[in-house]
């Protein structure tokens, strides 16, 4: 159950909003800002606590995002703002203004940019500059705000980010609130109230509040990973529809890599391949674990802030709220059962972290040697030298033990590879345990961004295979329709028949075939069965065993 917060109200009445839109900008500057003596153009009207960036009216909204009034060439030089950015690890600045606006406030606009500063001064100092122009007291389209949110999300991965409009209140607050909805999956009300607590008087107009709510509704319609009729947006979807939704959610390198491939297929195939080959967990595992830590820490900060300001009425005791936890992490199949896997991946958390995933207070990286103890290198060398010189037979025995361990590892890996192949072939009915676990993971992927972190810790090949085939089986239509099948099975197919397919179908099949290819190499006896299951999933046509 989510925290209950009141619906935010605009700072401006409808009459005031209409008046602001009707009055010429020059008059607005004189009446509301002070014209050349605008209070937002310098530090004169603000206490030091209101200057997170000295010399500029500014506030930290999150640990990584500072909202600020617009800087100027004069302020940048007078208060060494570039040096402040470097000291604070601010790597990007996002400007929400339109060129030429508020020309009658503060200093003259720079002729090369029509802003109060030249963006080049930041770029020359390796600080990225982005501009998403939004009219004063106005809004962007949903597509426009989505682009800005994705850039902000990417920039936060690179370092801290400064966001500004004119005063750093309305448009700046809208972008940050939408970013919180996008990243933490919190409600629009929670996002608006949180930003207003951290940056008073933010998100001023009714239209700006409505944009945050519209963005949250749009997000909700794109989150479904597995169709589920019990969910509000759990309708069935085709491959193309899924990829359209995915394009809304992903950004950066991940979005570029998975333009034509479903993320769920890519992740599951990568994990099954890694299990087969006995390789370390694929990069997706570490990425999702790190993302989970970031999301939970930020979400906790938001909820703690709302609670302290008495804006929330907690319906249940703290820690049981749906926005902060996933019920499956408290069940036998939950996160605590994955502690061993995390340790084997040389990534672990404190006992308080593992006792309740709802609150991440600290993260530690421990090697396995901390558990088993280590021998100083010098002692190790001396012991080996002694064995070699005085007891050569002992050394031979030692070597034999190493070979025995290698043989055991090879046997163990061979058994695991066989388990993966058997799971993908799906010859036997699935156990209730596997079905329940797969259902839990599907629910978490549908309802919580941290569901991906739970998925990448799963190591049961039966569960992973069930999720893979289930996703393909639940598509609204098969990936290969009748025409596609005829092209691929023609007596005179094209030189590379898969190239006749659309990119989405082709790249998805490539991903699946790559996984199957790795799985059947150590277990060729299962090749025919796995290919039969794959063809059935792609075409919805049963293939008789031969």
Automatic annotation (TrEMBL):
Keyword Transport: no
Tyrosine specific protein phosphatases domain ranges (all copies): 143-210
GO biological process: cilium assembly
Superkingdom of source: Eukaryota
Keywords: Cilium biogenesis/degradation, Hydrolase, Protein phosphatase
Pfam families on file: DSPc
An MF annotation (GO) of this entry: protein tyrosine phosphatase activity
Tyrosine-protein phosphatase domain: residues covered: 57-222
Family indicated by similarity: Belongs to the protein-tyrosine phosphatase family. Non-receptor class PTPDC1 subfamily.
Purpose: May play roles in cilia formation and/or maintenance.
UniProt name for this protein: Protein tyrosine phosphatase domain-containing protein 1
């Amino acid at each position: 159950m989510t925290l209950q917060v009141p619906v935010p109200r605009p700072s401006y009445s409808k009459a005031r909003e209409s008046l602001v839109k009707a009055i010429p900008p020059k008059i607005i500057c004189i009446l509301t800002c002070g014209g050349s003596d605008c209070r937002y153009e310098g530090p004169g009207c603000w206490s030091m606590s209101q200057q997170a960036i000295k010399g500029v009216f500014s506030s930290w909204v999150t640990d990584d995002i500072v909202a600020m009034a617009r800087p100027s060439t004069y302020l940048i030089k007078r208060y060494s703002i570039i040096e402040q950015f470097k000291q604070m690890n601010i790597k990007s600045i996002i400007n929400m203004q339109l060129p030429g606006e508020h020309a009658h406030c503060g200093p003259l606009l720079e002729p090369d940019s029509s802003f109060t500063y030249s963006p080049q001064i930041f770029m020359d100092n390796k600080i990225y500059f982005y501009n998403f122009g939004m009219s004063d007291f106005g809004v962007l389209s949903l597509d426009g705000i989505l682009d800005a949110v994705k850039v902000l999300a990417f920039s936060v991965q690179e370092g801290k980010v400064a966001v500004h409009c004119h005063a750093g209140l309305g448009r700046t607050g809208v972008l940050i609130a939408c970013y919180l909805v996008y990243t933490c999956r919190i409600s629009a009300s929670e996002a608006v109230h949180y930003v207003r607590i951290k940056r008073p008087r933010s998100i001023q107009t009714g239209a700006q509040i409505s944009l945050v709510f519209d963005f949250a509704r749009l997000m909700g319609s794109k989150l479904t990973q597995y169709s589920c009729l019990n969910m509000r947006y759990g309708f069935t979807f085709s491959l193309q529809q899924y990829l359209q939704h995915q394009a809304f959610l992903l950004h950066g390198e991940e979005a570029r890599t998975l333009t034509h491939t479903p993320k769920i297929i890519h992740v599951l195939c990568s994990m099954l391949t890694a299990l087969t080959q006995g390789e370390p967990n694929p990069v997706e595992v570490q990425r999702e674990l790190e993302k989970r830590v970031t999301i939970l820490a930020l979400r906790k900060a938001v909820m703690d802030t709302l609670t302290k300001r008495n804006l929330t009425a907690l319906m249940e005791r703290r820690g049981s709220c749906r926005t902060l936890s996933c019920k499956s992490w408290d069940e036998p199949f939950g996160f605590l059962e994955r502690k061993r896997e995390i340790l084997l991946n040389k990534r672990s958390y404190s006992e308080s972290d593992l006792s309740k995933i709802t609150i991440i207070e600290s993260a530690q990286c421990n090697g396995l040697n901390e558990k088993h103890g280590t021998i100083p290198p010098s002692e190790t060398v001396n012991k080996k030298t002694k064995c070699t010189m005085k007891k050569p037979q002992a050394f031979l025995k030692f070597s034999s033990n190493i070979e025995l361990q290698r043989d055991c590892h090879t046997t163990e890996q061979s058994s695991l590879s066989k388990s993966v192949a058997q799971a993908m072939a799906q010859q036997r009915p699935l156990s209730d345990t596997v079905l329940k676990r797969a259902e839990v993971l599907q629910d978490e992927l549908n309802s919580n961004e941290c569901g991906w972190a739970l998925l990448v810790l799963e190591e049961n090949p039966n569960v992973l295979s069930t999720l893979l085939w289930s996703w393909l089986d639940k598509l609204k239509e098969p990936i290969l329709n009748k025409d596609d099948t005829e092209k691929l099975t023609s007596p005179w197919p094209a030189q590379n028949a898969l190239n006749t397919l659309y990119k989405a179908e082709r790249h998805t099949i490539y991903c699946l075939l790559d996984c199957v290819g790795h799985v059947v190499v150590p277990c060729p006896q299962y090749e025919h069965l796995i290919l039969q299951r794959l063809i059935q999933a792609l075409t919805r046509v049963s293939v008789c065993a031969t």
